Amino acid sequence: MRAVGLITEYNPFHNGHLHHMQQSRLLAEAEVTVAVMSGNFLQRGEPALCDKWVRTEMALAAGVDLVVELPFIFACNSAPHFAKGAVQSLDAIGGIEHLCFGSEVGHLDPLQTCADLLVEKSTEIERQSQELLRQGDNYPTARAEILRTMLPDSAAMQALESPNNILGIEYLKALRLTDSEMTALTVQRLGAGYHDLQGEGSIASATGIRQMLKDGEGVGTFLPKNITSILFNALAAGKTAEPEHFLRILLVRILRGAASLQKIYQIEHGLENRLFEVALTATSLEDLIDGIKVRQLTRTRVQRILCQLLHEVEAEVALTLLDQGPLYLHLLGCTKKGEKFLSASRKNRRLPLVGNYSRIHNQLQRFYGRDSAYYRLALEQLRLELRASDNYALLQKGFSARRQSDFFETVRRQQ
């Protein structure tokens, strides 16, 4: 069965995602669509609108055949780590011939030019980036400025100006750096831009849809009809994150003292003091983020730092997991066609595929060996995933004492 891989967040699933999924299947001449999807916390360092199970149900109802979770340490990270973890996950599933991503430019050449340059001149680009960082630039600005002096044509330079293009460049980099056998394809993004708050026709960005929901505006025009009830039932049940809850949990952690923050991933020397000082007076999540943000730190970087802090992610563990790559695959949902694909591709699978976590320790022990270093590292990945699920439960408006959801939630099935 020919399969195409998608790298997604579906926050929430909308008509633009439907277009991307359908066009990906056509371009790849695929029978099966496989999505690697962020879990409860996303690449921009924010909790998802709805949990991973609700978003999986939306994806399956819209026609995706298989949904596998991208581990937290990759999902809530910079674009290079996000892309690499997602590509490694798709490769580890086995049997996926193509990766298809959305882009503003709509064709691969300028994106591939940028990706190749980033790989081939990585040492020089990193050296120059560090010089600009010392002058006060943030990392994305510094890297873009350097690349513009190296790129051969205006088309490649323009590719650096749009969010989906930038992610596409990172996917192409990851394909090359991991020696992936998948072939890249791209679908041109339609309608509203990534950050646009207004819709265009039947297409609106996920950012715009979330803002409309916050403002009490109708969003049905922008969603596939068969997933609208799934989203609104979840929202009505309070299955969405509450910023006020996020703030209070963070303040409790930060106010233990600046010294207690030093080992947390992405908290660089001196930042722990700033975090503590701002936490003393912050009265909202926006206050906290704005108080921490400085010229060298983008808002997204600050949000990711707060997520790492929420989950107590130690730098040493994070760097080891990022270097190793995913150590198991968490299956969130599948259709009958997806099940057939999993059966057909089993011999090519490189990592254990886990559904409900009730037997995960036995599965990991059988795969890695009880006393192996890989088994211990897989347990670190598991620890972070469980913490992410528990913390998301605490952030929900419809707070419930029923946590540890990965142990009792079943794989979502769709005909």
Notes on the protein architecture:
By secondary structure, the protein is α/β, with parallel strands linked by helices. It has a domain at 3-236: Rossmann fold (3-Layer(aba) Sandwich). Helices cover 53% and strands 11% of the residues. The chain has 20 helices and eight strands. It has helices at 15-28, 52-62, 72-75, 79-93, 109-120, 122-134, 139-150, 154-158, 163-177, 206-214, 225-236, 243-254, 271-279, 285-292, 299-310, 315-324, 336-344, 360-368, 373-395, 405-408, and strands at residues 3-8, 32-38, 66-70, 96-103, 183-188, 329-335, 353-354, 412-414. Strands 1, 2, 3, 4, 5, 6, 7 and 8 form an eight-stranded mixed sheet that branches. Helix 1 (15-28) links the parallel strand 1 (3-8) and strand 2 (32-38). Helix 6 crosses helix 7 and helix 13 packs antiparallel against helix 14 (285-292). The model has no long low-confidence stretch (mean pLDDT 92).
